[in-house]
Amino acid sequence: MRRADSVVSFADEIAMIAMYQRALRTLLSLLLCVAGSFALTAAQAAPVAATAPPAPLSLAKVQALISSASRGRATAQSIFAGPGGLTGAVVSYKDAPNAPPSVIWVNDDASALLVGKLIGPKGEDLDKQAAQKVGLLLAPDKALAAAALPATNAIMVGSKGPVLTVFIDPNCIFCHMLYQQLEPLVAKGALRARYVLVAVVKRSSFAKAAAILSAKNPAAALQQDQAAFDPKTEEGGIKPDSAPSKAVTDRIGANNALMSKAGGDGTPMLLFCSKDGSVQQLEGMPRDVNTLLAELASRPRTRLRRLKRSTVQTLPRDMLRQRGACRLSAGKSAPARSG
């Protein structure tokens, strides 16, 4: 009996030790959790030392980096604050004195350059927005105001509805596809289209644009070009004008320059008044024309006072009676004539 009692007692002691160990581990875990909670609370309550933002870069510092990186071929004309702590620089190039300045980016300590497209969170072209902000490119509202002037000899088709301004090349296949999609909408009065003729796609584009603008009825000439368009060769169907007048030549050249000044990289380039009151600019074939149509505003919200005085002074008197920049797109463009 005594041996059995000893065995039982020893087993009980082992079980009690295991129980105490489990309890000790549980208590230790609780203590660690409580200690961690107090530490976290204290850390949250403790004042965080503010990190001073980096000092704005000077033009001299930016120029030193650009000059070094370009081996003296580029010059920073001016700088401005950019997104995400970047500094924008307006740069010209000694190798291309006639080329317009461009925008490049410098990091916060002027140790590296960013050259190329800077894209925003919604896919917006931040390079182009910056160029518009500093005056290298026309903002969309000013580009629309310029496109609406009689000097462009734009071709207005349609009698009612909001206006879509399209920079169109006679040999541009995407312009042709857009023209085909807009034609039935124009016919039923859903919109009006203002076509600004440019020549940027092929060598024959200039002579074909001249033929359209020199025609007695430019709208009919444009329709002829599009009706006979050859998708295989990507050629408009109108017969080129081999000897256009200087006036027509100058008009096409000025339209090309306007599209370039607006930042247009190709055709079609679209300008229109949006329902939110802003002027929007799109490049290329819209994914869905009906969706685009739903975005067009029939009444303006942007007022003429937002435009520079120099811009307003160049507008025809009948346009100045309109309420806003978006309303400019509702005015009638002057008919295109030769000479």
From TrEMBL:
<feature type="domain" description="Thioredoxin-like fold">
    <location>
        <begin position="158"/>
        <end position="285"/>
    </location>
</feature>
<dbReference type="InterPro" id="IPR051470">
    <property type="entry name" value="Thiol:disulfide_interchange"/>
</dbReference>
<dbReference type="GO" id="GO:0042597">
    <property type="term" value="C:periplasmic space"/>
</dbReference>
<dbReference type="InterPro" id="IPR009094">
    <property type="entry name" value="DiS-bond_isomerase_DsbC/G_N_sf"/>
</dbReference>
<protein>
    <submittedName>
        <fullName>Thiol:disulfide interchange protein DsbG</fullName>
    </submittedName>
</protein>
<dbReference type="InterPro" id="IPR012336">
    <property type="entry name" value="Thioredoxin-like_fold"/>
</dbReference>
<feature type="region of interest" description="Disordered">
    <location>
        <begin position="228"/>
        <end position="247"/>
    </location>
</feature>
<dbReference type="InterPro" id="IPR036249">
    <property type="entry name" value="Thioredoxin-like_sf"/>
</dbReference>
<dbReference type="Pfam" id="PF13098">
    <property type="entry name" value="Thioredoxin_2"/>
</dbReference>
